[in-house]
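Q: Structure tokens for this one, please.
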Amino acid sequence: MNSRPDSGGPPSKYAPFEALREQAVTLRRAGLSRRQIRDRLHLDNNDILNRLLRGEPAPEWTRRPNAKDESREKARALRLQGLTYDQIQVEVGCSKSSISLWVRDLPQPDRSRTREEASAIARRGWEATLRAREELRQATRRSAAEEIGALSDRELLIAGACLYWAEGAKSKPHRRQERVTFVNSDPDMIRVFLRWLDLLGVEPARRRFAVQIHESADVPAAERFWAALVGVDHGALQKTTLKKHNPRTNRKNTGETYRGCLRVHVLQGAELYRRIEGWWYGIVWEGDTNGPLSRPASPPSPMV
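A: Here is the predicted structure, written as tokens:
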């Protein structure tokens, strides 16, 4: 039962190692993967396979498509210079888990350093990780923004109706007030809302603006900011509403970047409010899995 390696059966344990290595190297240079070579030679011991293929590079096709080859080579070169994982992370910008996989076969560096040096290295490594995360975050945001592209009028109509019903003033059963008033602290939300009013044909003359802000803030600066954002003179703003300041507050919206909220009110907006309400319930009914028979004859009164 001393079958030969090239006969298709399992190799004899007495087969010369060099002959077996010659076959393994030939298969490797022919472009076979480690698994393919192991199956072809009927090997079940990875240690033996490692010895047979020692010094033979892997075929190009077996490399992972997303492998960071340049970062890997740089990390290995830095490790050979005696740098630690933390130091390599600062230079390469990869996670320490990846660096560990890339350099685990290389000798460990001298770890004789002070606690202050170790802390500084770890801090720089963490800063590099945060930078990499922020780059990934920004790339994701850019990609998602490109998925939206240009909005059609219908898409903007739906987006604006959802935006208003989430953030705008709504009539309540105990207080019937059909008016269009939108308050928000996010300048981008205000911009989108104004674009929506443009789409609906609400003339600038029907729009009124007022700032709502804590009394401890820089009120004049906030008024100038919001006036410039909506394109009106500072004097065109209505009287600012000041919120009483609590010295023991834990709120985070303080400092130079705090500008309060802007209130946008549409004059003679009762009819527009009813249309907004109708658009919203049109969206709700469209996703109603119970079918049109379950819909009320008219939109229900909002309870929020």
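A few notes: The two ends are 85 Å apart (CA to CA). The first helix runs from residue 17 to 29.
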